Amino acid sequence: MDMNSFSPAMPTSPLSMINQVKFEDEPNLKDLFITVDEPESHVTTIETFITYRIITKTSRGEFDSSEFEVRRRYQDFLWLKGRLEEAHPTLIIPPLPEKFIVKGMVERFSDGFIETRRKALHKFLNRIADHPTLTFNEDFKVFLTAQAWELSSHKKQGPGLLSRMGQTVRAVASSMRGVKNRPEEFVEMNDFIEIFSQKINLIDKISQRIYKEEREYFDEMKEYGPIHILWSASEEDLADALKGVASCIDKCCKATEKRMSGLSEALLPVVHEYVLYSEMLMGVMKRRDQIQAELDSKVEALTYKKADTDLLTEEIGKLEDKVECANNALKADWERWIQSMQNDLKSAFMDMAEENIYYYEQGLATWESFLTTQTDLHLEEASEDKS
């Protein structure tokens, strides 16, 4: 398909309509709204891939228009993430969903996989839009506004291959040397990240296992009700009671399905996003350490006068400023991320708790109603026998 054939149109999807209402009703609270929707499959002789429509509505002066519509594929999102990391090495960039999800999702182009990815990409862009620094990144603006051919042209303007290789070699060399005197606050930060990573990965595995077992329970329970209906056909005296049990099981099935939906849409994505965040945080710490390691190596060279003293002194001054900026950026972003993480996880677990309470209340009410009905019938039968 022609990637440039998409004409700018007013958003028609529910998500786009919701964002349009928000943009019109709350112009002073937020000035950038992004919607990712309408996944579309593209088949070429070389590959098959999915693109997503991105609708952007804004009141910012630096944008040429108040509304943009573009289509992007997954590798475009990867490019944006890489550019943000290059421009802001010690800011916490929101994570992207994995390119492939092997566990529990075999078909890469299944509706479930595509919808899960769409939601994650939507969250990725809106996390950036809400970030106090990343939201004003020029590459982010280009990503939201440029048509496909313009984006391709912009990508070619980035660092060349040799330049990127040189940066990689220097980064590896710095990491091999290590950091001699990491500031205490970053030691504590690194310790927190390691513990957080262990805990959130464990919660993710347990949550996935709970969902899998719930699914198996639900599949078995769906077969349980019809069996009681068949049984009632051969037991005249128990027919009403068996049909009542079947009805209760059917109601419990519907309640279980709703709880599973809540688990898969509210809790699992949040927990898994922070699994990916923990990996991102480790990368941020490595980049911070690499900047400091580069400074340490220059200071060491100056101490032993391994190179031109004046040149080293000048480089050390620049690196000291770079380290200070990197440290300050990370410290400020760390506090913001901690607050966001706590709010997100608290909200997800509270929602799950409320779903569970409602689920068990529904089940209890269903079976209590059945018991009350059966008790009334027994009392009526007993009264008729006495008379």
UniProtKB/TrEMBL annotation:
UniProt keyword DNA repair, yes or no: no
Chief location of this protein within or outside the cell: membrane
Keywords annotated in UniProt: Protein transport, Transport
Compartments, as annotated in UniProt: Early endosome membrane
Domain (PX): residue spans on this chain: 30-151
One Pfam family named in its UniProt record: PX
Entry GO MF terms: phosphatidylinositol binding
Listed GO CC annotations: early endosome membrane; phagophore assembly site
UniProt similarity note: Belongs to the sorting nexin family.
Record text on subunit structure and interactions: Heterodimer; heterodimerizes with SNX4.
Name of the featured protein: Sorting nexin-7 isoform X1
Source organism per UniProt: Carlito syrichta (Philippine tarsier)
Gene that specifies this protein: SNX7
